[in-house]
Structures are given as structure tokens and as C-alpha cells.
Specification:
By secondary structure, this protein is α+β, with helices and mostly antiparallel strands. The chain has two domains: 7-46, Pemi-like Protein 1, Chain: D (Ribbon); 49-83, no CATH class. It is 33% helix and 14% strand. Strand 1 and strand 2 form a beta hairpin.
Length: 84
């Protein structure tokens, strides 16, 4: 894991280095998602609608390959041991 030491400004602002913004698709004026964790904060670029659709299609393909059938939520009552 790579660690960077950044300084926080008086209003709590931290500048994310350009290399990281480009790598993770963060753009000026764009939105980021903040995930609170036990050991800190995780920042993510908000996915575009196209990225969300791509992720859904990949998930559907995985489900199809696994042979799982049914509507979303139907497996809610089953434990993993029962399903697999």
C-alpha cells in the first residue's frame, strides 16, 4: 500500500495530487463519494451513468454464469451455505 502525507488547510481542505485525481477519474466540479470507515475515510469518484450500467451488466453476466435464477431479493432468506 502507498501512503502520502498531505497537509490540511484551515477549512479542512486537502488537495488530492493531480496524478491521483487523473488515475481515479476525479475532475474539478465533479462529485466524490465519502465512505466512513472504522480506520478512516475513503474517497471515491462518483461513477458516471455509463460506468454504473457497465457494472450492472458485468454483475448480470456473473449471475448468469453461476446459474442463479429468480428475481432480485428472492434469495434474501437463504444463507450462503443453502445457496451454494
Amino acid at each position: 500500500m502507498v501512503s502520502l502525507k498531505l497537509r490540511m488547510g484551515p477549512k479542512g481542505q486537502v488537495v488530492i495530487p493531480k496524478m491521483l485525481r487523473e488515475r481515479y477519474g476525479m475532475r474539478e466540479g465533479g462529485e466524490v463519494l465519502v465512505e466512513l470507515r472504522e480506520d478512516g475515510i475513503l474517497l471515491r469518484a462518483k461513477p458516471s451513468p455509463d460506468e454504473i450500467i457497465t457494472r450492472i451488466m458485468k454483475f448480470r453476466e456473473i449471475v448468469r454464469k453461476m446459474g442463479i435464477r429468480g428475481k432480485p431479493g428472492e434469495l434474501k432468506g437463504l444463507g450462503l451455505e443453502d445457496e451454494f
